[in-house]
Write a structure and sequence with these properties.
Order of helices and strands: HHHHHHHHHHHHHHHH
Largest sheet: none
Distance between the termini: 93 Å
Strand content: under 5%
CATH topology of the largest domain: Hypothetical protein af1432
Radius of gyration: 27 Å
Length: 321
């Protein structure tokens, strides 16, 4: 018997003649940090595409806060904006206000509703197009950003009025802050949609407990930082800027704290949100301490706001959806 041949059988490593050979990619893999920077830069560029709040908001608020202004002054300021005027009259005549007499002019609406109600209507009407966006990626239901923003605005104003007895000017600042507190999400949402798999993993990650953590992990920036850039671009007040930037943080002042609390209560009631919304955590004790609200009084406030938000009368701003 002959001895077996030594050595490797190289034939078994040969590819069949008809086998397809995959080309070797020579494109360099983009580092993770470079991907994040690219996403962040896109968001910052998109900030320029978000329209500024209409100047009429601040003009009307200024007139309404002036002791020498009249309802006719406000109507005169709005005469060139027939779309806004129509929205205001539609809301004023909605079932929510149940007016005995129909308001056919802005002057009549002021007479029937008062300056404070009119200011809120003007502000909400002016922002409705900007806030009526599909942001389902964030856990908002249909028209959810608009509904949640309005809830936060009305609750901010209600807390300021009923608990802290703030003046009319402060009330409207609270209303505006609550209305635009999540405005930064509009610029981030398209990037999150493009990277939905990463965002879904962040939602499931027990180490990530806050939305802002997930946003920064995927895009390098969170919605409060984008909001800060928008407020700066629009040249709005430092008070508004602080509230938008800090509405998820322990507050530095009472104004920020009221908006933070209003946002938490609106989220607790799932206003504008899907049932399995994943980003709602416990309320900070530091927040209640800053606002001087005891646990007993907080429970009473929570019961009151729950009824306020879930009233069968609905909202006067339902007409804008």
């Amino acid at each position: 018997m002959g001895l077996p041949k030594k050595g490797l059988n190289l034939n078994k490593f040969k590819k069949p003649l008809n086998a397809k050979i995959s080309p070797i990619s020579t494109a360099p893999k983009i580092p993770r940090f470079a991907q994040i920077d690219k996403r962040k830069n896109r968001i910052i560029e998109d900030i320029e595409n978000i329209p500024s709040l209409p100047s009429v908001i601040f003009e009307i608020t200024k007139l309404a806060n002036s002791p020498t202004s009249s309802a006719r002054d406000i109507e005169g300021k709005m005469k060139d904006d027939q779309v806004l005027t129509a929205k205001i009259l539609k809301i004023a005549n909605s079932p929510y206000y149940a007016l005995n007499d129909k308001a056919t002019t802005v002057t009549r609406a002021v007479a029937l509703l008062g300056f404070s109600a009119l200011k809120s209507i003007v502000i909400a009407s002016s922002c409705s197009d900007t806030l009526n966006k599909d942001l389902g990626i964030y856990g908002f239901a249909e028209n959810g950003l608009w509904k949640h923003s309005l809830a936060c605005a009305t609750v901010s104003k209600e807390i300021g009025k009923k608990i802290f007895h703030v003046n009319d000017k402060y009330e409207e600042e609270l209303f505006i802050a609550g209305l635009i507190h999540d405005i930064g999400k509009i610029a981030i949402a398209p990037v999150l949609k493009l990277n939905k798999d990463e965002f879904d993993k962040a939602i499931e990650d027990p180490a990530i407990t806050q939305l802002e953590q997930a946003e920064k992990l995927i895009t390098g920036i969170d919605h409060t930082e984008v909001g800060d850039k928008l407020i700066t671009k629009w040249k709005l007040s430092d008070m508004l800027r602080s509230a938008i930037t800090n509405h998820h943080n322990d507050p530095e002042n009472k104004f920020d704290g009221i908006v933070h609390l209003a946002d938490w209560l609106s989220t607790e009631n799932k206003i504008g949100l899907v049932d399995d919304y994943p980003w709602h955590g416990p309320l900070s004790d530091a927040l209640l301490t800053k606002l001087g609200i005891s646990q007993d009084n907080f429970q009473k406030l929570q019961d009151y706001i729950n009824k306020f938000l879930n009233s069968e009368d609905g909202s006067p701003f339902d007409e804008l959806m």
